[in-house]
Design a protein that fits this description.
alpha+beta; Glutathione S-transferase Yfyf (Class Pi), Chain A, domain 2; Immunoglobulin-like; 4-stranded antiparallel sheet; 3-stranded antiparallel sheet; 7 helices; 46% helix; DNA-binding; nucleus; STAT_TF_CC; SH2 domain
Length: 365
């Protein structure tokens, strides 16, 4: 396209003489006809390139929708694995697909910028670049933003280092870790990306809902390219939580802990934010953990784990912090499967039909 328009621009400046009366000059008329043919060819080639861009953006949208389905399946597998289900939660395939789609979209972004630059040098009446390039750029920008926002995921849910403890049940004063990953492994090596964590960024309006502080550092500066083999990871380790004490609680007062939910049914969330920048595109990415429960002593662990099991078994909304205000019942076949996962995660063998029948008789008579 650049060669075509340079050739047209040269001929235009050499041969076109507006204001001169040369309509009877056959050589000049022939030059104008050749000039018009060059312009028509340039216009046709511009339209072909724009049509190819439209087609590629359509295909990338289809691919992005497929990746969203794959990501949704991975989230479900991760939720089941937290309950002990034998399933794979490796992110490497998804990371490869997300990265390659991101590379393709950023390459299209460069090409669209190049088309805009061409239009600045040479334009004409009904130039398709003038009308269509801004629309393509907007469509591409939306695709990139959607891809990047969905590509920021929690790879490791909040969990304590003790291998015998379950994830999503934390204890005040005890260390825990959580990790988020950006599946699009594209970064500017000269740009410093800062990741932050927040607990209960938008707390539910529940009476007596406890508030906590993260005592250790809640932000990290990631130098892009630090560990390219590991990808873009926000790894927060050795975190600890401390409850905020209500100044109103004291002698003669009920205190802040007397809320509408018991401690072992109070769901909390950690949110990761990441200031992302690449090739001139800057945006804040955000992702949240699954709801977890914060206990203050080990006697509460069994009840807390039962709540985590119930929530992940029945809730379709990963941010439903008010789930236990009116918890739904579980159908026995669903509960039986989850109980079998519990046994399999500990003793490497699930429950047989006889075992499940015995449990059902214990529960239901």
């Amino acid at each position: 396209l650049e060669d075509l328009q340079d050739a047209f621009d040269f001929c235009f400046k050499v041969h076109y003489r507006p204001g001169e009366e040369r309509s009877r000059d056959p050589q000049y008329t022939q030059q104008l006809q050749l000039l018009q043919a060059k312009l028509q060819n340039l216009d046709q080639q511009r339209r072909i390139v724009l049509a190819q861009m439209q087609q590629l953006l359509g295909r990338s949208e289809t691919l992005r929708e497929l990746l969203q389905e794959e990501l949704g399946d991975w989230r479900e597998r991760q939720q089941r694995s937290c309950l002990g289900a034998p399933t794979s939660t490796h992110l490497r395939p998804l990371e490869t697909w997300f990265t390659e789609l991101g590379q393709g979209l950023f390459q299209l972004r460069k090409l669209l910028q190049a088309l805009s630059d061409l239009q600045v040098k040479v334009t004409y009446e009904r130039d398709p670049l003038v009308a269509e390039t801004p629309l393509l750029q907007k469509r591409l920008q939306e695709q990139l933003m959607h891809l990047l926002k969905s590509a920021f995921v929690v790879e490791q849910q909040p969990s304590t280092p003790n291998p015998f403890k379950r994830p999503l049940v934390l204890r005040t004063g005890s260390k825990f870790s959580a990790r988020a990953r950006l599946l699009v492994r594209l970064h500017d090596r000269n740009h410093r990306m800062e990741a932050k964590i927040h607990i209960d960024r938008d707390p539910p309006k529940i009476k007596g809902f406890r508030k906590f502080n993260i005592l250790t550092s809640s932000s990290k500066t990631l130098l892009a390219g630090d560990s390219p083999q590991e990808g873009l990871v926000c790894d927060f380790q050795y975190l600890t939580l401390k409850e905020q004490k209500d100044s109103r609680s004291g002698k003669g007062s009920k205190g802040a802990n007397e809320g509408s939910l018991v401690v072992t049914e109070e769901l909390h969330l950690i949110t990761f934010t990441l200031a992302y920048a690449y090739c001139g595109l800057e945006l804040e990415l955000e992702t949240s953990t699954l709801p977890f429960i914060i206990i203050s002593n080990n006697n509460q662990f069994s009840s807390a784990w039962a709540s985590i099991l119930w929530f992940n078994m029945l809730s379709s909304d990963p941010k439903a912090q008010q789930f236990f205000s009116a918890p739904p019942p579980a159908p026995w076949p669903h509960l039986a499967e989850v109980l079998s996962w519990q046994f399999e995660s500990v003793v490497e063998r699930g429950l047989s039909q006889d075992h499940l029948l015995m449990l059902a008789e214990k529960l239901f008579g």
